[in-house]
Write a structure and sequence with these properties.
The structure holds two protein chains of two kinds. By secondary structure, chain A is α+β, with helices and mostly antiparallel strands. Among the domains of chain A are: 69 residues, no CATH class; 102 residues, 2-Layer Sandwich (Dihydrodipicolinate Reductase, domain 2); 62 residues. Chain A contains eight helices and 19 strands. In chain A, α1 packs parallel to α3, α5 runs parallel beside α6 and α7 runs parallel beside α8. The longest helix of chain A has 18 residues. Chain B is mainly α. Chain B folds into two domains: 80 residues, no CATH class; 29 residues, no CATH class. Chain B is 54% helix and 0% strand. In chain B, α1 packs antiparallel against α2. The longest helix of chain B is centred in the middle third of the chain and has 19 residues. The chains are: A alpha+beta, B mainly alpha. Chains A and B meet through α1, α6, α8 and β18 of A and α2 and α3 of B.
C-alpha cells in the first residue's frame, strides 16, 4: 500500500484480520517526508495495547512494516497523544481494537480534546459510544470521562476511556429506520475564556433549532484552573436523538481566523446547528462522520446479515468499504433508495470472533 | 496498470449483468474502480460528488499543502467532513425537513 491516506483504517483492519501491513511512499514527495508525529504516536499506542507486534520504520519514515500482535487491552494505561491531532483521532481506532482485546481496556489519553479536524470528545461520548449498543456491545463498562479540557494549539486535556471486551462476537444489526427527531441535546464548553462564551453559542444554536423543535437543551460546561488545559478555546457539540434511537451529531470548534482572533461564538453556534439540520436532511441512521465506524462494525459481525441506512456516502466511508473488502473479504451490497435520497447497505459479516479473550 | 484497468472493466460489466442500473452505479463507485484513473466518462460523473468531499478537508489546511492535493495517496486521515450547508435561514429549506421531527406531520413521515 502506498501513502499516508487512511492510515488508521489500514492499521485497525490489519490488526483485526491479523494480516501484516506494509505501506510505502509515506509523504515521499512532501517537504516533511515520512510519518507524522501523530501517526508515530498512534503506532506507539497500538504497541501499548497489544503483545508482540512488530513495527519497522525506515530511516526517513516513508516506509512502514507492521506485524500485528495479540490485542491485550489492560487497565490504567496512559498515553500522551501529543498536539498534532485531537484525541478523537486516537479514540476512533482505539474503540474498535479495545472491543476485541483479551482484557477490558481502560486508558488515560492526554492531548487536545476538541479540535476542528477530529470528532471531539463530547461527540464521542454522546454519539459514538451509544452507536455500539446496536451491535450488542455491553453498555456497562463503556465510558468516556473528560477530566480536563485541552484546546488547540497546546492541548493539556485529559480523558479516560473504558472499553469492555466483546464476550464472543458482535451481533448483526438491522438498522434502517432513522425515525423522527424527538430531542436535541448538546454541550457548549469554554475554557480559559469568559464563561459567557458558552451561553452565546447556546443562544445562537437555539435560535436556529427552536424553529423546528422546542425540545432543545444544551449544557454549558465551563472549565477553570487545572482542568482548563493550556490554551483558550470554546466550541459546541450537538446531537439529535430520534424516536428509533439513532443519534446524529454535529460540532463546531473555535478556530483562529486570520489575525489570531477566535471566531465569534454566535457564528459557531449557528454553524453547528445548521450542520446538524444538514445531517438530519441527509438522513441515515448515523451522521456522515460515523459511516466508517458503522461499516466496520457490520463487517465484524458473525456470519449473519446486517442492513443499515446512511445518507450520502462519505469519502471516508467509501474508503472504509474498500479496505474492509481488502482485509476482511466482506463486500457490501449497496442500493440507493431514491425516495429518501439515502443509501441502503447490506452485508454478511465476516464471522469475526474475539479470539483473544480469556476462556474461563 | 492497463491490465488492472481491463480487469476492473470486466468486473464492472459482470456486476452490470445481475443488477439494476441505479444499483450498479454505487457498487461501481465503491468497488468497481478503486483508482480514479479510468477514462470512463460515466464513471467520472458518478464520482464527482465524492471527489469534492475528498478534497474538502484539505482546503482548511495551510496553503502549502495545496500542491500535495494533486496526488491523494497522502490524503489527510480524517473521518469528519465539512458538509455543504444549505441556507437554513430560508423558511422553505426549513419546511423541507419539518416532517423529520416529532413536531411535524407523522402521516407524511411514515410515507417516506
Amino acid at each position: 500500500m502506498k501513502g499516508a491516506q487512511h492510515f488508521r483504517q489500514r492499521l485497525v483492519l490489519s490488526t483485526l484480520s491479523n494480516t501484516a501491513l506494509r505501506i510505502d511512499d509515506i509523504r515521499a514527495d512532501s517537504e516533511a517526508p515520512g510519518l507524522c508525529d501523530f501517526e508515530a504516536s498512534l503506532l506507539r499506542l497500538v504497541e501499548k495495547i497489544s503483545n508482540g507486534c512488530g513495527i519497522e520504520i525506515n530511516e526517513t519514515g516513508t516506509k512502514l512494516r507492521y506485524k500485528p500482535g495479540i490485542l491485550a487491552g489492560g487497565r490504567n494505561l496512559v498515553h500522551d497523544c501529543g498536539t498534532g491531532r485531537g484525541i478523537g483521532y486516537f479514540l476512533e481506532p482505539l474503540i474498535i481494537l479495545g472491543l476485541f482485546g483479551k482484557k477490558p481496556l481502560s486508558i488515560t489519553l492526554r492531548g487536545i480534546t476538541n479540535d476542528s479536524r477530529d470528532p471531539c470528545v463530547d461527540t464521542f461520548r454522546t454519539a459514538t459510544l451509544p452507536m455500539l449498543k446496536h451491535f450488542g456491545v455491553p453498555i456497562e463498562g463503556l465510558e468516556l470521562k473528560v477530566v480536563a479540557r485541552g484546546a488547540p494549539p497546546l492541548g493539556g486535556g485529559e480523558v479516560v476511556l473504558k472499553v469492555p471486551i466483546v464476550p464472543k462476537s458482535l451481533t448483526a444489526a438491522t438498522w434502517v429506520d432513522e425515525g423522527m427527531v424527538k430531542r436535541i441535546r448538546g454541550v457548549s464548553y469554554s475554557t480559559r475564556v469568559s464563561p459567557h462564551m458558552a451561553n452565546r453559542m447556546v443562544d445562537a444554536a437555539r435560535g436556529v433549532l427552536n424553529r423546528l423543535l422546542p425540545d432543545v437543551y444544551i449544557f454549558t460546561d465551563h472549565y477553570t484552573g487545572s482542568e482548563s488545559g493550556k490554551s483558550p478555546g470554546y466550541g459546541i457539540s450537538l446531537v439529535a436523538e430520534t424516536t428509533t434511537g439513532c443519534i446524529l451529531s454535529s460540532e463546531c470548534v473555535a478556530m483562529h481566523s486570520g489575525a489570531s482572533e477566535l471566531q465569534l461564538p454566535e457564528d459557531l453556534g449557528t454553524q453547528a446547528a445548521m450542520s446538524l439540520l444538514q445531517e438530519i436532511r441527509l438522513g441515515g441512521v448515523v451522521d456522515s462522520t460515523h459511516q466508517g465506524l458503522l461499516f466496520i462494525l457490520c463487517a465484524l459481525c458473525p456470519e449473519d446479515v446486517s442492513k443499515v441506512r446512511v445518507g450520502k456516502l462519505s469519502s471516508y466511508g467509501i474508503k472504509m468499504l474498500q479496505h474492509i473488502k481488502e482485509f476482511l473479504g466482506v463486500q457490501f451490497s449497496i442500493k440507493p433508495d431514491p425516495a429518501t435520497g439515502t443509501v441502503l447497505l447490506t452485508c454478511v459479516g465476516s464471522g469475526f470472533q474475539n479470539l483473544y479473550r480469556k476462556v474461563s | 496498470l492497463e491490465m488492472g484497468n481491463a480487469l476492473q472493466w470486466k468486473q464492472g460489466l459482470m456486476s452490470r449483468v445481475g443488477a439494476s442500473k441505479s444499483n450498479v452505479n454505487l457498487m461501481q463507485v465503491v468497488y468497481g474502480h478503486v483508482e480514479a484513473s479510468s477514462k470512463d466518462k460515466d464513471f467520472q460523473e458518478d464520482i464527482s460528488d465524492s471527489d469534492e468531499e475528498l478534497f474538502k478537508p484539505k482546503r482548511q489546511a495551510s496553503k502549502d499543502t495545496v500542491a500535495a492535493n494533486a496526488q491523494n495517496i497522502d490524503l489527510e486521515d480524517c473521518s469528519r467532513l465539512t458538509l455543504e450547508v444549505d441556507d437554513w435561514h430560508n423558511q422553505e429549506v426549513i419546511e423541507a425537513i419539518r416532517d423529520r421531527f416529532v413536531t411535524g406531520d407523522w402521516n407524511k413521515a411514515s410515507q417516506r
